[in-house]
Amino acid sequence: MQHKLKTTYPPTLTSNPIPTMFFNSHPPYSSSPPCSHSPQPFTSRSRSPPSATPPPPPVVVVSPCAACKILRRRCIEKCVLAPYFPPNDPIKFIIAHRVFGASNIIKFLQELRECEREDAVSSMVYEANARIRDPIYGCAGAICQLQNQVNELQAQLAKAQAEIINMHFQHTNLVALICMEMSESQGKQFLQSQKHFDMSSFLDENSLGCSWEPLWT
Question: Where does the record place a coiled coil (predicted)?
Fold first, then answer.
């Protein structure tokens, strides 16, 4: 009897996945059956409308002063030049900067009190204008010219005052002369009236004597 040999092959590994065991998260002593969590549809929670928030304050855009704009630098909050060189009047700083320079202007203003700075800036701008008009004498030439005008006006004033005094003296003399003439004319009238009175009284006495003469005879 012949035995047929059968060749046996090892079992091939299949690619079937190993079942994964799910463990219940409940403690082992719980006798209740595991709850099956069914997926619930996602519902958005009803949110109340947000409360009305106040609007943000408007953004104030601070324009740089004329000095910082011309110098092309950032104008800080406490800029020394900002109160005296506004952005709408750049010519004022251009004139002062041309003669004195920005650093000298800042240094000069920092040495003064705040109540004196405005007058100092006005003086610097005036002197710079005078220096540009008259590069040789500058403001000294303008001051000399003004002093000459003052002297001329003082001379004219003294002349007018002398004329007033002369006219007052003439008026006084004229009034005295008129008073003298009036007194003389009144004196003449009085003398004439006195003479007339004397003549009339003399004639009255003569006529009275003539009337009494027949009585004595």
Answer: 143-170
Q: CA-CA distance, 130 to 121, in Å (whole number)?
A: 14
Strand (E) or helix (H) holding 99: helix 90-99
Start-to-end CA span in the chain (Å): 252
86 class by beta-carbon count within 10 Å (0-12 exposed, 13-18 middle, 19+ buried): middle
Give 42's contacts (C-beta < 8 A, 6+ positions apart): none
- Enumerate residues 6+ apart whose C-beta is below 8 A from 134: 141, 142
pTM above 0.70, yes or no: no
Beta carbons of 54 and 60 less than 8 angstroms apart? no
Return the structure tokens found at 28. 């082992």
Question: What span, in angstroms and rounded, lies between the C-alpha atoms of 113 and 167?
Answer: 54
Select the more confidently predicted residue: 140 or 58: 140
- Domain positions in the chain are 66-133
d(CA 130, CA 118): 19
Q: What is the pLDDT of residues 8-63, one digit of tens each?
A: 554 444 444 444 444 444 444 444 444 444 445 444 454 555 556 766 655 444 68
Nearest of 72, 77, 76 to residue 97 by alpha carbon: 72
CA-to-CA dists, residue 146 to 71, 82, 93, 124, 152, angstroms: 35, 32, 26, 18, 10
